């Protein structure tokens, strides 16, 4: 019986191996493996040399990225929270083995991430910029760019960076709301990070942006540079200077350009083309301006949110990404403010992503309140219906590196960052796409 059972098991195993060998590698790789998450693919690379070669190849990485982009967002989105003293080191360790030396250089302070194709760029309180891929756990520190003299006037927040956001007792829109936009340059097939910097720093120029010379950048006070990931000689490249001083709103990157705000002496929108690497002033929506305005990418289109403080409403404008932007008003949300002394009025509303006729929004109250909500946009003129999904401040527990938990309402020093995210196998140091 034992011998017969052993033979049976051996025959079954042989049959399975024969069947597996009969499946062509191309079919197995591009119809099965490409649908696996990055963590599983890391194990698959150890199975066969042919699998490893295919999984690390550009064709596989591009196809995996295409499928990741196509997946609809979850109705219960996962959340990433950045804090100056607790969650930030844990976030970075999940992406890579961030050393203590990085954290000593400012990485544990308030960080403001931007994203593109699963990559995350992190601005710090120094001239350093970090980029990570949480799916592959790759983490790199970019070399320092030209020193930003404005940093001498901002002790709390890092300056803005892009890839292809004081007073903690109440909600603030900081004068130093800084991001580093991150985007994909399709003409050079490279991911780029952008940053601005002040060449000189006096209180009027670099501190509050109100100097006429600084606002118009007539004297070249402000410069701009880009860093090419996996290419470009490993250093920052100076570009044309921005025509106006960069404002407080976060920049945004489309598949064609980076968009920076300018707010002095009047509101403007500046477009930095990724193809020609040149600046141009482009039309804003035919609406007013508020320091609480925001921008995002929704369904491949540029979205501008105008915060009308007088009417307590937010207006969502969309435009196709082009040198001559043509804006159309899509919908508006009116905020019903409570009149009680304990009211926490919403005065900042940021779009995150879409799922069919729903838009995921982050609503921020004046007194440290962060609400994540789904907004259903009606096809008719009936307006939009907003349904609260979760209170980031009072309904979620967050983890510390030591395993302990705490509620957001138990800490005043925090900054919620909600980003649309999908897995990517894109390398930060090599062009594998």
TrEMBL record:
SUPFAM superfamilies: F-box domain. Residues 222-362 form the F-box associated beta-propeller type domain. Residues 72-95 have a biased composition (Low complexity). Residues 69-95 are annotated as: Disordered. InterPro entries: F-box-assoc_dom_typ3, F-box-assoc_interact_dom, F-box-like_dom_sf, SCF_F-box_component. It comes from the Eukaryota. This is F-box associated beta-propeller type 3 domain-containing protein. It comes from Urochloa decumbens.
